[in-house]
Please model this.
Amino acid sequence: MKILITGGHGFIGQNLYEAYNNEHCDVNLYPKGKDIIDIDTEVIDCDYIFHCASTVHNYHMLDDWRLDVNTNCHGTLSLLEACKRHNPFARVVFTSTFFVYGNQNVLPVTENTPPNPQGLYPATKLASENFCKIYFNTWNIDIVIARLSNVYGLGEQVDNNKKAAFNRLAYDISQGKQVPCYNYKNREYNTIQRDYIHVKDVISGLQILAEKGDAGEIYNIATGKSMQFRHMLDLMIEHANCGSYELVDIPDFHKKVGIDDFSCSIDKIKSLGFKPKITLEEGIKNLMLSYKNG
Model:
């Protein structure tokens, strides 16, 4: 089996590579440093293509808005065109994000919940989802869309203040530091709730979608369970036996583009056999031990 991973040097891509490499598949990473809009013959003879090349946060709209558009929109269209030219029968798995849902009045969301992106990053991911559906409907490109919730686990960056907040906060707590916790006024326990899923469970979900997902369909990949952000920090401190947090005011930009509470249904992907295996407490415990032990 031949597999291509775009964005293969990132967090999700590296974990995908390891999973398929351990199964002795022919796994290829799209060349690091080569612009995704230049993708072409790399798709030839591929059975599965995981499209993970993407921007990962909202902050580019402050100083480089073209990066979201070029990477997410032009990059996805370039991949779809390459498949149309060279390999229309490959199964393409597009990794999208829960951020496309934005803030919703009714939770949990399902794949049928109308999207409401708050920033340019999720807006361009949603546009890319629509490109995928158009190419499926028009040229029968075999594609399935995965909307990932908050992903954490070993291998993620811990030094970027614009992304991967879970891992960054976990690392800082493991080093005995005090971390910020956004103070949501007039909310019980002063914090939001999110669905946190371990990267190994995400990889399992993506593999299931590659094998069993219905073409042209969208699937949430999450745990189906949400936890208060402050409770999550409590678990980190408990298992690190050090560190602390302080409530801080929410930055104005985050108020405009961030998401408040989020929870989602995973009934659709569960019908394919998906079942998250790593509990949040187990995942946090292992992460803190790893960080503390270096």
